Amino acid sequence: MESLGDQARWLPVVVVSVGAIPLAAAVAWWLAGLRISRGITTAQAWRLSIAEVGMVLGTAPWLWMILTPLPGPGLVHVLPFEDLRGQFQHPPIWVTYQIVGNLLVFAAYGFLAPVRWPIRPLWVVLGAAAGSATVETLQWALHLGRVASVDDVLVNTLGAGIATLCSRRWWARRTPHGPAT
User: Quick one: which of 12, 98, 20, 106 has its CA closest to 62?
Assistant: First the structure.
């Protein structure tokens, strides 16, 4: 189990992620310009471009961190709430760090996917669950020395669902079959 002091290993992820913001802005600008040149309205072109770039910029660093190998053997928790219960054996800052971090893994996707595509929250949540299950399976299959846990899938999915609801004002009026629920 890594300590909070071991978090310096994530400094490159933070530096690269922050450094990628200008590149992401340039990509969004380029995509919006391309869409505008193809006849899409300026507002719609920017909406689509920012949503696409934001999903990548907000999710990729988390995936990089959770797929980075750690020394030591990995663990697998397949019983729901077993791993979460174990988290509470640690100091409150540790619990906060773990739970908030897992809530944020697919939050950018959850927030921006319904802004980008006219899909209902259920499909966003199912997509996040599938993505999270894939990541946890990769942690186990690639022997990364990580904890592969069904609880991480549950918390990642919950984070995406909460984020979807937080962006409701930007997508609720334009779903294909009336207001999304």
Answer: 106
